[in-house]
């Protein structure tokens, strides 16, 4: 008689095992959803950084006379200066010379970095050794004949929420764009 009851229904242990298996599946799906959200966010930051670097590269090509005197001085960190200082002239209302245009270009890039990248940073320099141990790096090691590089990055986070950093304790650039064909 007892064996017939077991055939017609589920035992409590079978139900508990099914609930545990279902809970593990739901937790796994939730974890995958969180990973997908984080990857999508990082992809969006990378896309924004690449677009900013390409736009700045085009501005450098359009104003090559100011590369050595103005653009190569750009090393902006939005973490240290969240609101960039505006230049004296922004070239929106009327004509301006190439030096004022370079200052306006750099200000516009700084505003984009500050508003679109968390703790963003941009650096324009001459560099022959952008890579170290398979990662981009901020320091620039290049002489006057080295290519011009636009480096853009942001302060990312590890999956556990701690700040992501490299072996030097700093965060690495996300994008480094080498400008080919730019006069030294």
| Strand segment tally | 6
SSE-based structural type: alpha+beta
**For the residues shown, what is the average pLDDT?**
86
Oligomeric nature of the chains: single chain
Overall tally of structural domains: 1
Portion in beta strands: 5-15%
**Rg measurement, Å:** 26 Å
Poorly predicted regions are: none
Approximate helicity band: 40-55%
Total count of helical runs of at least 4 residues: 3
Q: What is the spatial order of strands in the main beta sheet?
A: 1-2-5-6
What's the overall geometry? elongated
Keywords: Membrane, Transmembrane, Transmembrane helix
Pfam families: N_methyl, Tt1218-like
Organism: Pseudoduganella aquatica
InterPro entries: N_methyl_site, Pilus_4_PilV, Tt1218-like_dom
Distinctive features:
184 residues; alpha+beta; two-stranded antiparallel ribbon; transmembrane helix; Tt1218-like_dom
Task: Write a concise synopsis of the structure shown.
It comes from Pseudoduganella aquatica. This protein has 3 helices and 6 strands.
What does this structure look like?
- The protein is an alpha+beta fold.
- It has one domain.
- 42% of the residues lie in helices and 13% in strands.
- It is built from three helices and six strands.
- The strands form two sheets. A four-stranded antiparallel sheet has the order 1-2-5-6, with helices on one face. The chain has a two-stranded antiparallel sheet with strand order 3-4.
- Strand 3 and strand 4 form a beta hairpin.
- The longest helix has 51 residues.
- It is elongated and about 90 Å long.
- The protein starts with a helix and ends in a 5-residue tail after the last strand.
- It comes from Pseudoduganella aquatica.
- Pfam families: N_methyl (PF07963), Tt1218-like (PF22150).
- Keywords: Membrane, Transmembrane, Transmembrane helix.
